[in-house]
Amino acid sequence: MQQWVYHVSPEVNAISQYPTILAVCISLSFVMTVVVCLRIWVRAVWKKSFGVDDAVIVSSAVCGIIYSALCITQSRLGLGLPLKLRPNESLNTYATVNFAGRPFYMAGITGFKVALCIAYLRIIRHSSEKSYRHVVWGIMIFTILSHVGGTLVLFFQCSPVHKSWRPLTPGKCLPNPAVFYPLAGVSIFCDLIVFLTPIPLWLKVRISTPRKLGLMAIFLLGLFTTACSIMRVVQIEIIARDGNSTMLILWGTIELNVGIAITCLPTLIPLVTFMRGRTSKSGPMQYTYSTSDGRSAATSVKLKSVGLHSSTMRSQTIPTGNNTIVKSGSFSSLEAILPVDSQGRPIQREGVESSNGNGSQSHIHVVPNPGQITKTVQVEITRTDNRPGPEQSWLH
């Protein structure tokens, strides 16, 4: 069987770190691709709201896949070996592939940060947070300009430029620490401000504390990319000492793929909610109704019943005081709530109580026809106005 690293002996091939490089690049690229595909399905197919931020994250994912492929290619040319054991025959090819990967890495990490900023702007597009919008625009512009500047520095690190991919060409290059330390510092700073920017927004959202904490936790996960950037900084000293850039490139691959995947997590909230609803044995049913002042509102109805349930799914209307509740889903049949006679007419109800406040509670006692089973259904209704907040805006 042909050995993995070109132009080296079997003994040198055996000590190469290429198995680690393959495992990291392939596994993380696969996970990242799956997450991005789920995001596309949720946004484009399910929600039909594919936006600019989604297009940017797809472009970033393509860059991530290309960068991982180039890392794997470099492992065949000597990446994963100490510098003194790398084959001279592969020197120019290795340098060319390494140079080609730089713009894809920079474009990838820029992309997922910009995608988050665009998503923030979409969330607050109907709000009165003008100052917040200005801050987000400023962060996005700074991120783009700083990363474009970093890419140009990597392109023109050597003079003449082609010395970057022809290392034996006479000339000079900027020392790696002088280039990589500032780039890493800018990347870490952008990570922090991009992932921490929405935290004040979530603190103002009027949702349950567990959901609020969950949303903030998702964004705080993005700080893992900051940890990856810090690990890259640690490797700069190693490169300055022995020239081995293996772990620097590997941590860059981890940072890029994990950053893209984490950026997609908030958009998968509808899918997670849907799957939890499918697997839950019981839970609130969702209704919409029109109030007496003509506003549309969302209603969550919890049922507690004893008796037989029909498997027939149909759409029914439940009058409750001044409100009319119209079933918009079919988690269970409304015949389990209001049985109907043989002609499809609702059976008489007694003891209906309702409230026009933010919540109402109705106790319905079904008066059966002769021979039917008596059933008591307790309906707990919680009403919220149908005005999208930041969390809902994220989902559309």
TrEMBL record:
Record keywords, A-Z: Membrane, Transmembrane, Transmembrane helix
The family this protein is said to belong to: Belongs to the SAT4 family.
The record's listing under InterPro entries reads:
Rhodopsin_dom_fungi, SAT4-like
Protein name (Swiss-Prot/TrEMBL): ATP synthase F0
Enumerate composition-biased segments (Polar residues).
353-363
Any stretches that span the bilayer, and where are they? 20-42, 54-75, 104-123, 135-158, 178-203, 215-236, 248-272
The UniProt entry's GO CC annotations, sorted and at most eight, read: membrane
Q: How does it sit in the membrane?
A: Multi-pass membrane protein
Where is the protein localized?
Membrane
Q: Which organism is it from?
A: Trichophyton interdigitale
Q: Which residues form the Rhodopsin domain?
A: 38-272
Residue segments, region Disordered: 347-368
